[in-house]
Amino acid sequence: MLAQFAVLLGIAGLLIVGMFVYPRWRVRRAVHKAFPLAYSAILRRDLPQYRHLAPDLQWQLKKRIQQFLFEKTFVGCAGLEVTDQMRVLIAARACMLLLNRETEVYPGLSHILIYPSVFVVPREFRTEDGLTVESRQVLSGESWSDGRVLLAWDQVMPPEGQIPGHDVVMHEFAHQLDGEDGVVDGAPDLGSQQRYQVWSRVMRDCYRRHAQMLAHGEHSTIDAYGQTNAAEFFAVSTETFFTNPHGLSMEFPDLFRLLRQFYHVDPREWAGS
């Protein structure tokens, strides 16, 4: 009986080890494969920042993309057929937010749903007198807390080209980062109370200044949608940080420095050159 128990215990131990070790081994194997030449061509053609990244950042981005593509499932919606271009570009823009950072590749995310164009989602809200009202909202992207991100492909790759300060993929994946501490509130996992205090102060001050600029009819590099709430201000600021870093650094230098410290990159080094 003792021998049988020992065998069963050993088998159970192997199974438990396999549950944790085998998935990590599969990820490492996928990441260590050569990056496909066709994927590199997509990056060079369709991701302007990639061409100006330092070699070590290009290498980092490729490895992150490989892990992202291995772990996440892409689903075409409304008849859309998902292509390698869609998968690689979405993964690349999402992983731009992870460069130089010791972090997992969106561990809470499992599926990316891609629509051909803007899509409609149902909404419910309560009026002041307590009535529940149903509505429909047209969206170009949305981040959900259940492991899904929804994107409209014609907004990921707009026919007229990217507008500085706008990137729907970076916006929605900033929400994913924001939610990694359990709540989407405009403050991602920062690791220490001191960093949270600095983050709160800078974000609050810049949010108020942004509101004042809009109230006075002044143009801002940060889209007006950022005034929706703190979470949207962080997401919109992230878009601007990566796609219009020079404008953000001049208009909101404190916010730029805060995001540079969080993301561990300075996009001015590879933007617009």
Question: Which labels suit this protein?
Answer:
4-stranded mixed sheet, Collagenase (Catalytic Domain), 10 helices, single chain, alpha/beta, 273 residues, 6 strands, globular
Characterise the protein shown here.
This protein is an alpha/beta fold and 273 residues long. The chain has one domain: Collagenase (Catalytic Domain) (3-Layer(aba) Sandwich), CATH 3.40.390. The chain contains 10 helices and 6 strands; from the N terminus they run H-H-H-E-H-E-E-E-E-E-H-H-H-H-H-H. The protein has helices at 2-31, 37-46, 55-71, 84-95, 153-156, 168-178, 193-215, 230-243, 245-251, 253-263; strands spanning 73-76, 111-115, 119-126, 132-139, 141-143, 148-152. A 4-stranded mixed beta sheet has the order 1-2-6-5. It has a two-stranded antiparallel ribbon with strand order 3-4. Helix 1 (2-31) packs across helix 3 (55-71). The radius of gyration is 21 Å and the shape is globular. This is Zinc-dependent peptidase.
Topology of this structure?
Elements: H1 2-31, H2 37-46, H3 55-71, E1 73-76, H4 84-95, E2 111-115, E3 119-126, E4 132-139, E5 141-143, E6 148-152, H5 153-156, H6 168-178, H7 193-215, H8 230-243, H9 245-251, H10 253-263
Parallel strand pairs: 1-2, 2-6
Antiparallel strand pairs: 3-4, 5-6
Helix pairs in contact: 1-3, 2-4, 3-4, 6-8, 8-9, 9-10
- What separation lies between the terminal Cα atoms? 73 Å
- The CATH superfamily name is Collagenase (Catalytic Domain)
Mean pLDDT: 87
Which architecture does the CATH hierarchy give at level 2? 3-Layer(aba) Sandwich
Strand content: 5-15%
Instruction: Give the strand tally.
Output: 6
Keywords: Membrane, Transmembrane, Transmembrane helix
Transmembrane segments: 6-23
Protein name: Zinc-dependent peptidase
InterPro entries: MetalloPept_cat_dom_sf, MtfA_fam, MtfA_N
